Amino acid sequence: MKSLFSVIILTLFTLVLFGVLYPLAITGIAGLAPGAGKGETVSVNQKVLGYKKLGQSFTAEKYFWGRPSAVSYNAAGSAGSNKGPSNPAYLKEVETRIDSFQVHHPYLTKKEIPSEMVTASGSGLDPDISPEAAMVQIKRVATARNISETQVAALVEKSIQKPLLGLFGPSVINVLELNAALDQIQ
After folding, report:
1. Both 12 and 47 in a single domain?
2. Would the pTM of this model clear 0.90, i.e. be above it?
3. What is the DSSP string of 64-112?
4. Kindly report the CA angle at 184 between 36 and 131, in degrees rounded to 5?
5. How many CA atoms lie within 13 A of 157 on its CB side?
6. Are 30 and 45 in a shared domain?
7. Which pLDDT does position 158 carry in this prediction?
8. Which of 33, 124, 127, 155 would give a disulfide with 70, using CB separation of 3.0 to 4.6 Å?
9. Cα four-point dihedral sign 149, 150, 156, 159
10. Do the beta carbons of residue 34 and residue 84 sit within 8 Å?
11. What is the domain extent for residue 116?
């Protein structure tokens, strides 16, 4: 009987600890994060355009495009394609993406297309592209918006986020923020 009482006490203790106190502590810590634990948003004129850390689909010529998504940018189903580089279906999909990219960027050869523009990220939700991936799109975006390539290139340069402390990680550009800035200059 004494051991049964000990088990009941231990069960109640762990239930309160992990079912109440731990979730409250995590919720409190999340409240200190940018966006108060609800995610950082990108806003223009107090209108929320989307989440900064969540890739979105941009297909119009006047916008910079992000990485393709294996999950159609659905955060509920975040995943890669799980197809290896020798999978014939995957290779065909990448080749189709290359051909499509070249239709919209006829001034590029296949070798000049950054691989990230034709391959999905591991999560399928990558919000960033490399500066090189943005640079190859400048001509298309400038033409579609009827503004100078120099003006678009300057905006791209301004949008580059450098590595943490200049050492950790690559330089990236957040596609949503860049496209929001583009809309602001027009």
Report:
1. no
2. no
3. ------TTTT-GGG-------TT-HHHHHHHHHHHHHHHHH-TT--GGG
4. 75
5. 6
6. no
7. 94
8. 124
9. negative
10. no
11. 40-185
* Total domain count, the chain: 2
Q: Give the C-alpha separation, 109 to 60, whole Å.
A: 21
> Which pair of structure tokens corresponds to residue 157?
């340069």
The pair phi, psi for residue 166, each rounded to 5°, is: 75, 5
Which residue is it, tokens 């979105």? 56
160 neighbors 64 (Cβ within 8 angstroms) = no
Residue 107 CA, distance from chain mean position: 26
Strands of the chain, DSSP E: 41-44, 47-51, 128-129, 173-174
Q: Are residues 44 and 27 in the same domain?
A: no
